[in-house]
Amino acid sequence: MQLYNSLSHKKEEFVPHEEGRVSMYTCGPTVYHYAHIGNLRSYIMEDVLEKYLRFVGYDVKRVMNITDVGHLTSDGDTGDDKMLKGAKREHKTVMEIAKFYTDAFFDDCKKLNIKTPDVVVPATTYIDEFIRVISSLMDKGYAYEAGGNIYFDTSKLEKYYVFNDFKEEDLAVGVREGVEEDENKRNKADFVLWFTKSKFDDQELKWDSPWGVGYPGWHIECSCISMKNLGEYLDIHCGGIDNAFPHHTNEIAQSEAYLGHKWCNYWFHVLHLNTNSGKMSKSSGEFLTVSLLEEKGYKPVVYRWFCLLSHYRKSLVFSWENLDNAVTSYNKLIERIAPLTQESSGDIDSAEFDRLRKSFTDALDNDINTSLAITAVYDVLKSKTSAATKLALLADFDKVLGLDLIANAKELAEQSAATVDDIPAEVLDLVEQRKEARKEKNFALADELRDRIAALGYEVKETRQGTEINKLS
Ligand code: AMP
Ligand code: ZN
Fold first, then answer.
1. Which among 26, 42, 238 is the best mutation to test ligand 1's pocket, defined by most ligand atoms within 8 Å of the CB?
2. Torsion over CA: 457, 462, 465, 467 (sign)
């Protein structure tokens, strides 16, 4: 399997540390607000990656944090804790906010068929672990105390900007928009491991530590939660592309300083969902949620389909028109699958099964090319193989795609069948006679039967999906 690695900027053959097993870490949501559909694009594409790894036989262990403390409104370690901002906005406690939006996040995931990771850790439950790792970084000389906070000293590293050959002055704190300079930092790129009371007096959640009462920085959370649950060698780390710098860059800095060796081999970054006015973001306050899509009558699974139609390494533009196009193509696909669910099951043609399955795995083996994998779905429908083979393939593919293909097709077929139940037997009989007449190419008789059906108040039509009978109004 070829996977693009943000560290090397190229596709690489995926080889896990331990044969047959994959350790996978995902940056979880900051639970101060609803996840927007941009966040969920990242989680959908990561879910496809995880499910595909399982599909090809890996034993996957996936871990995710919940950021319920320490993520500040600015990348440069300034501003309020986002959680505090959420609590103030809703006149609730931070823990109430965290609980509410964590539950909301998993509800959204469920609607989008995103599997819950094997281990989910709220950052506030790992404070001792953060303190232990920060103490070790202090002992090793990678961290220092200044103005009451504990900082990571990036000058101690051979290379800090690992994802890109950025020029330090282009990215360093103080240059990026909205980022204030922190005078305590020895180097512009240094970042906070532990905040103390020296700042943010109204911070609600604080813990005792060797450096005073305070709270952890956001970056240390992911390093510690990953290392504790997945060990010293991580195979794949995922996240949205905005996390590459500074968050993932800092995770690598502190994890490798702590471990004394390379930590994670593959970095999987999902590009952003944008609107015509730019990146969809929680902080701007203008964003779309799954509930909003539902209120507008969209099935959440159609948003998953919309995401799968594009490659995860391309930014994706959201517009209602684009979503409507996705609804149309999804519905057409389901209409094509529906009749298959009603056919008597024949034998599975194993040669055809293997051939068609291979085009699906070839697509996903090529850096999770989901749009090509969807082409493989259409290839199944176009093939001349038995309905049983087609259904078996679609059910198999859907273990990765998560599009409810069979369930929705069955539902549609049953709805159509229910409508047939309401049609008088006399009409159904004439429809059958007309089918025979058409088969025998007796079009004059077919036309006569159509007129007789119309006289009884029904219209009969041949469509790509078969014969359609509608009541005339
Ligand atoms: P947050 O809840 O802000 O910590 O973000 C959760 C995840 O969503 C992270 O992996 C982010 O990188 C990702 N993310 C944020 N904005 C977008 C976006 N517009 N499109 C795709 N992913 C995003
Ligand atoms: Zn993270």
1. 42
2. positive
From the list 262, 77, 107, the residue with the least C-alpha distance to 184 is: 77
- Cα angle at 259 between 256 and 264, to 5 degrees? 50
Show the tokens assigned to 250: 């800092």
CA 313 – ligand 1 centroid, Å: 14
Q: What is the pLDDT along the chain (473 residues), one digit of tens a residue?
A: 999 999 999 999 999 999 999 999 999 999 999 999 999 999 999 999 999 999 999 999 999 999 988 787 776 677 777 888 888 888 988 899 999 999 999 999 999 999 999 999 999 999 999 999 999 999 999 999 998 899 999 999 999 989 876 555 554 443 344 455 678 899 989 999 998 864 566 777 889 999 999 999 999 999 999 999 999 999 999 999 999 999 999 999 999 999 999 999 999 999 999 988 777 876 666 689 999 999 999 999 999 999 999 999 999 999 999 999 999 999 999 999 999 998 866 789 999 999 999 999 999 999 999 999 999 999 999 999 999 999 999 999 999 999 999 999 999 998 877 777 788 889 989 999 998 998 899 999 999 999 999 999 998 887 655 678 888 87
Q: Which of 39, 82, 312, 316 to mutate to test ligand 1, by most ligand atoms within 8 A of the CB atom?
A: 39
Q: How far apart are CA 412 and CA 334, in angstroms?
A: 8
